[in-house]
Amino acid sequence: MKQAARRHFLAAAAALVAACSLPAQAADAWPARPIRFIVPSAAGGGADTVARLLAQHIGGALKQPIVVENRAGGSGVIAGNAVLGAPADGYTFMLGFTTMSQLPATSTVKLPYRVDTDFIPVSLVARSSNVLVVNRSSVDVDSVKALVDALRASPQKYSYGSYGNGSTGHFLGAQFLQETKTNAQHVPYKGAAPMMSDLLAGVVSFAFPDIGSALPHLNSDRVRVLAVTGDKRMATLPQIPTMGELGYQGFNLGAWFGLFAAKGTPDAIVQDMAAQIAGAVKAPEVQAKLVGMNLDPVGSDPKTFAAFFQTDLQRWADLANKANIRTD
């Protein structure tokens, strides 16, 4: 009887040890099946292109397919819910972008989650900048100072376009008016393309479009680029100074793409995926395509991205409150 009891005890103990070791074994075996990258925008956009570029490279390295799923709508909330609704087992990630920092700062509707606590920042994939562009028939100036002088001379005459309320262009335009103590009417559009069309036509006087949307039009004699945002000059526009160089500080808010996981995802998997992204953005073919999209490849570790994300959230919140920027 004692021997039987002993065998029972040993068997139970072994089962307990095995059960406790399952998460570690699962993490060690990762990935054992296909991974999903959920994108909060439609196919063909910047985030989708970045996600598919990473998926192809990392999937090959991990020898597991990475499936890109587009869950557009709700300013990213649909995609966020899809990630948080899946098991936090390292098989579902989200390729998020700047909207994740902007939406909590501007939304008048309570979000179904908290971006700062319900998601784990995995890696900052790439960053980009915006450009200050003027329509030459509307305000024919050749410097930021001259634009400021024109706005001050005729406060009710000019307008600036953006690709939607609460967009990066909206924030930058509002910040510009605040910093320079000038006025101009904000004209929001449903996307960058119609906004650029009206900027070229002179319907709006100036704008802060993203470089990807603006670059195809910068050789036109109808517009002139005066400055770039960000901490350094762009490789594609090396002759154009930054806003900071011209004495306008704080214009380092810009676009970015980053990978997120749901809270509870094993840290070993988060670290592994971050390392995969770092390797991917250093690969010559991936780096060339990102630079071709006017993106600055980063590939950070989770800790660095988490610090960046928290700072970004606070910056957008401060500016939204200061400029009273709100979205439905």
General shape? globular
Mind describing the biggest β-sheet?
6 strands, mixed
The H-and-E topology, N to C, reads as HEHEHEHEEHEHEHEHEEHHEH
Total helices: the number is 11
Portion of residues in beta strands equals: 15-25%
Strand elements, count = 11
User: Portion of residues in helices?
Assistant: 40-55%
Strand order of the largest sheet: 2-1-3-10-4-11
Q: Radius of gyration, rounded?
A: 24 Å
Mean pLDDT: 89
The CATH topology label of the largest domain is: D-Maltodextrin-Binding Protein, domain 2
Named CATH architecture of the largest domain? 3-Layer(aba) Sandwich
Determine and state the CATH class of the largest domain.
Answer: Alpha Beta
If you had to describe this structure to a student in words, what would you say it looks like?
This protein has 328 residues and is α/β, with parallel strands linked by helices. The chain folds into two domains: 34-128 and 255-323, Bordetella uptake gene, domain 1 (D-Maltodextrin-Binding Protein, domain 2, 3-Layer(aba) Sandwich); 131-228, Periplasmic binding protein-like II (D-Maltodextrin-Binding Protein, domain 2). Helices cover 45% and strands 17% of the residues. The strands form two sheets. A six-stranded mixed sheet has the order 2-1-3-10-4-11, sandwiched between helices. α2 (46-62) crosses α9 and α4 (99-106) runs parallel beside α11 (302-323). Keywords: Signal. Belongs to the UPF0065 (bug) family. Pfam families: TctC (PF03401). Residues 1-26 form the signal peptide.
